[in-house]
Amino acid sequence: MYKFLLSSRWLGWFVLVCALAAVCAFLGTWQLDRRDAVREDIGWVDANYSADPVPFEEAAGYFEDFDPSAEWLPVQLTGTYDSAHQRIVRNRPLNGRPGYEVLVPLKLQDGTAVVINRGWLAIGNNEAGWPDEVPAAPEGEVTVTARIKPAEPTLLRGAPEGQLASIDLAIYQEQTGYPLEQAAYGLMDTEDPAPAERPEAAPKPALDEGPHLSYALQWYAFGLLFFVGFGYAARQEAWNLIEAGEDEEDDFDDDGEEVHSAAPAPRRTRPVRRRRGTTGEEEEDAILDAQGY
Description:
The protein is α/β, with parallel strands linked by helices. The protein is 36% helix and 18% strand. The protein is built from six helices and eight strands. It has a five-stranded mixed barrel. β4 (99-108) and β5 (113-122) form a beta hairpin.
């Protein structure tokens, strides 16, 4: 009954359904991979964010060669801010508000320089493209507790003098003229002594996995529905052939291609009933007449 599925038309539909289902499966797997990455990040937040600060000497390697397992780990550093090379990072939204972040190199006692992100500033009203005021970093020796964050990639967009397009430590180092730790920077938590004013502290990252799992299940369901739709269409085609009274074995060749006979269908003759009182010759003439002779 389903020999028509071997026709070129139905085979083409089946190939298309398989291709669409494969795309859905790829997108579903991609969403699951994204969920795994988010869950890994959440794991580092849970493990590191509230941990006790470690001395810089124990965490120095993470600033030279970043390890994702160390992200958000609090580190205690002591040194002096180089406020002369302070920079503003543009296009840094916080809770839906546009703004900036403030970067200042912290020169440690051993000569190492670590970039500290001191926090967030709202977009200003006095001068376009600049915050209204940047709170000054403490002068003299300061002890900073900051969480490890990876350096950001280079962006194609530029930035005005005194600003950076991203926390690209390589470009920042070119502007300072002395070596900076390149793999990571510190997101400030506290400063001692604490200044009277400081930029707004970064909030704790959200621990929400997001909708990736539901999106993945939706994509897998879409892929399955393509096959369900194909099966339904095939069933309807089979019922249409049955209702039309067509013999599928005669309508399709060995390769599944639909064929049509050029010969006219034989004429159906009505059976001739023998009437009483007729001779054999009369009956024979009646049969010939019924057959069209």
